[in-house]
Amino acid sequence: MAGAGRHSVAPALISVMTLAAPATTLVTPDMMVAVLRGPGRRPLTGPPLTAAELSFPHTPGSPQAIRR
Q: Which end of the chain is less packed: N or C, by CB atoms within 10 Å?
């Protein structure tokens, strides 16, 4: 979804989804170019957690605790 990766598209998408703007907001030339260009960032290869966060003890019975 381009709205998640393009800062120029996200506000327009949210405005349309909350009915604060008409749907035609998403078919302006600027929006079409931004959507055609695709996401502005590469997808994550894994969770964006630090080593300390990954080593944090999990709740017993959670999928993470069972895998250990």
A: C
Yes or no: say if 3 and 9 are a contact pair by the CB < 8 Å rule: yes
Q: Which residue has the higher pLDDT, 54 or 65?
A: 54
CA dist., res. 68 & res. 59, Å (int):
12
Q: Across residues 31-37, what is the average pLDDT?
A: 87
Instruction: Report whether 35 contacts 9 (CB < 8 A).
Output: yes
The answer to whether residue 35 scores a pLDDT higher than 90 is no
| Integer Cα distance of 41 and 39 in angstroms | 6
61: pLDDT strictly greater than 70: no
Give the angle 28-30-36 at the CA atoms, nearest 5°.
Answer: 100
